[in-house]
Amino acid sequence: MRLLFVALLICTSAAFAEEPSSQPASQPASPPAEPSAPPKAIEPAPLPHEDRMFNPVIGVDEEGPLPYEGAKETSFRLFVHGYIRARASAAETDAAAPFVGTNNGFNLAHARLELTAGYGNKLWLRFSLDGAFDRGNGFTGAVAQTGAGNVVAAFRDAYIAYQPFQPLRFTIGQFRAPFDEEALTSTAKLLFVSRALPSQGVRATEGFFVPGLSPDRELGLRISGEELHLSERVYVSYFAAITNGNGPNVNANDNNHISIWGRLELQVPFVRFAAAGMFNPITYGTYPNLFDEQKWGVTGDVRFEWNGLEFLGQFMFVQTKYTSTGAPTVNAMGAHGQVGYKLFFGLQPAYRIAWLEPNDRISGDQLLYHTFGLNYELPWVPIKVFVNYSLTGEQSARSIKNNLFECLVQAVF
Prior knowledge:
Layout: H1 2-17, E1 76-91, E2 105-119, E3 123-134, E4 151-165, E5 168-176, H2 181-184, H3 197-200, E6 201-202, E7 210-211, E8 217-231, E9 234-243, E10 259-268, E11 271-286, E12 289-306, E13 309-321, E14 330-341, E15 347-357, E16 367-377, E17 383-394, E18 404-412
Antiparallel strand pairs: 1-2, 1-18, 2-3, 3-4, 4-5, 5-8, 6-7, 8-9, 9-10, 10-11, 11-12, 12-13, 13-14, 14-15, 15-16, 16-17, 17-18
């Protein structure tokens, strides 16, 4: 019996070993199938050119693809970015203005955290928070407070943008008001430590307080279209917005009126020309003691960039009419020009001249600043160092010694 079982096992194994192939013997075996080529990558639809004024990739080439380009239409892609700017400053002291030059030292200029979420190539959300808001110095310019304010956190951008097609984009939420070029330039891309005198004004610790003319963020709705090509190298961009008119982080209008903003840009090789206008009816005070003002303004600017050389010239005019009190109308205006050139190894000298007439009804209050700068971008890490010295000039009504030295270190991620 044992012998029979062994014989059966041997026969069964032989049968499996000699099982004929399903292919006839007279036909040669088919060569092995070649591995299939990887599927061709689907080219994503071109993402709308992100607003240069809200570019999420701080410190990265703005013409490059955004992090979420080509995302599936049914999913979000997130990108976290931001920067830190640490500043040291020293202003001259003057017995005629004992509050000037008494807060020299270090301060945290910005601690920005930004989040961009892209849904396909038509919808994106943007949120940014700055943990270094100084109450004595607003984001676009000086505010009427003496001393260095406490550093607190504050919202900057919080908006939804939808672009159904290239010539038309809808943005709702809190965003930069489309007015002057200096205020629309990203902080991380400034040529100097601070914005120009007409935009920023004068801080209360660095001279007699003067407010700047540039607007801050606004809460509202904007319609825009960017890079609408007239020819291969010539294009236009437009921006139109209606907002509350009372600045950022205020979740209610100050009255029942809206503010109107508009900006038009023309880009030709190496040069961009722009003009903008605004109308803003303002209400301030505490109920029932409320006062109305009407502000309107215009601005024009030209920017030139070529082979490491950059130039910006800008003029602003803002008129304030005091409709409640009947006080005389005030005209304010300012202009500045700046130039910088990138040398070898990231070194960049720069110069700026800025003029401001804060109130045409006060004689002798004009200011003229000369700022000399030297910047250095470290080639191996995303760090930029700024060194500025400003020669401040005031007319007789507010003449003091307050030349200003500033040094800033900026790191982006």
